[in-house]
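Section 5.1 Outputs to date
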Amino acid sequence: MRFAHFLACWAINALRASSFTLEDNEDVVAPVAPVGDAKAETPAVEVAAPSVKEVIRVLKALAKRVDVRNRKEDAIFEEFGHYCLKGSTSLEKSLKESQVELPQLQLQLTESDRKRQALLEEMKVQENDEA
């Protein structure tokens, strides 16, 4: 994108620096020969070439569009960078919290396993008493 902007600016400066001195009402006519015609000496169609001012106007409009697009891309890139930074920070925070919670969860697991074993033993004792 930046190369297109450079190219448009270069073309505008080159046209400004050129020695063309066309007036507003002058039209440049370029002869065009029909395709496949052996006699290219007589033009069959005449096409008016755009004036230098028109070319400069078009190139300025192109440079403006490229500049707007570059600004949008830069904004999107900054948002993406912020998102990545925010995401990595939140992941690190979550990892630290889970490392703190892990020993607590392991203790709860062992306690609940002990309670389960105790309840199973009570069930076996009650079944033996009933029988």
